[in-house]
Sequence to fold (262 residues):
Amino acid sequence: MSRIGVIAGSGLYEIKGLTLKKSRTVSTPFGKPSEKYVFGEIDNTEVIFLPRHGKHHDIPPHMINYRANIWGFKKLGINRILSISAVGGIKRGLKPGDIVILDQVLDMTKNRKSTFFDGKDGVVHIDFTEPYCPDLANALQKAGRKAKVTVKKGGTYVAVEGPRLESASEIKSFRILGGDVVGMTGMPEASLAREAEICYSSLSVIANYAAGIRKQKLTVPEVMEAMKDTTEDLKKLLKAVFTIIPEKRKCLCKDALAEAKI
Ligand code: HPA
Fold:
């Protein structure tokens, strides 16, 4: 039976057909993960969930223990993670409710512990040319077709420190740099997964137009409402993807540490 990790906000425990089995606290050398890992089963796939903000959404993006969260998945034997997060849409044409499968990252975070290798176990420089697993991204695209959910393939995620939202000028500059969406949790989650040799792919749900694109001010209820509206589509997409992800990994993610150590 294959095992897939899903890291997301709350509200995704009711994937259609998912049988919940147990939840487990996991300890790591990097401290405590955001929450207990929840184990479920669907269509012969074991699914392990983690809500990255905690189940009561009380951990802000800059306080998430990204290292513990990814390490915990590794410890549980997970080698594939699907990530879901709310973002602001920067690129023209993206509107609230749209779902984007990411393929690139611009990391603007400042104060986060972003590696498992602080020197004691050697110095590591992983290749990050392709930040997201292309095979998982393809599976998500196919799942979109199968579940009849529209997903856009390819997008550059700008990771910001938060917790404040951006200024209009910041968004303008991100657009010039090639950013398509902006969010606060995508990094270092993606690069830590690569260091852990875990395949990682990310679905961005456009929750709002990024700052300055519309005249109105950005509000949290607007973001939450858009996420709620897309939940059904996300659940369908996830249910479909579990049957599409191939058993064997053929991508480069599984050997990320080969030739990465000094
Ligand atoms: N900016 C940063 N993070 C976000 C946004 C945004 O506009 N919307 C949802 N998460």
The chain has one domain: 2-255. The chain is about 25% helix and 25% strand.
